[in-house]
Amino acid sequence: MSAAALISSGVILLTVVGIAYGGTFLLRVVNGAFPANELQRSYFRAGHAHAGVLVVLGLVVRLLLDQPTVPDWGRSLGDLVLVAAILMPAGFFLSVVGRDPRAPNRLKVLIYLGAASLVVGLVAAGVALIVGGVALS
């Protein structure tokens, strides 16, 4: 791995500490210490879960793509998984801000942009790994 990739991976790994701290917010919501309606509770749970899973998945994808035979485009597009780890949780949290919202606001588009980023990143990573494997054989 390059120095830049190692440093950025370290920073990404440290974000998991922030995600874990976000779990304390989720506990306050569930325990009633932070007022939230059912829509907000559901979206907060989804945002927290997606953040944790997608950051770890993004790091795994990054490690898998760090092979000399994997094309550069695969490494670049594979990082879209990490972009999804930002967009999707942001969409879940930001689309239900406010007092007692009845429906998500327009920022729910971030959820769909994150999903598209995730799909493109995973497909590109999968194809790049196959290309890299074929180059080895």
Overview of the molecule:
The chain has 137 residues and is mostly helical. The two termini are 22 Å apart. The chain has one domain (3-136). Helix 4 packs antiparallel against helix 5 (109-136). It has helices at 3-30, 38-64, 72-78, 80-94, 109-136.
Report how far the terminal alpha carbons are from each other. 22 Å
User: By helix and strand content, what is the structural category?
Assistant: mainly alpha
How much beta, percentage-wise?
under 5%
What is the C-alpha radius of gyration, as a whole number of Å?
A: 17 Å
Low-confidence stretches: none
Indicate the overall shape: elongated
Q: Helix tally?
A: 5
Percentage of helical residues?
Answer: over 70%
> In sequence order, what are the helices and strands, one letter per element?
HHHHH
Largest sheet: none
- In round numbers, the mean pLDDT is 93
Count of discrete structural domains: 1
What is the number of E strands?
0
Protein name: Integral membrane protein
Keywords: Membrane, Transmembrane, Transmembrane helix
Transmembrane segments: 46-65, 77-97, 109-136
Short summary:
Helix content is 77%, strand content 0%.
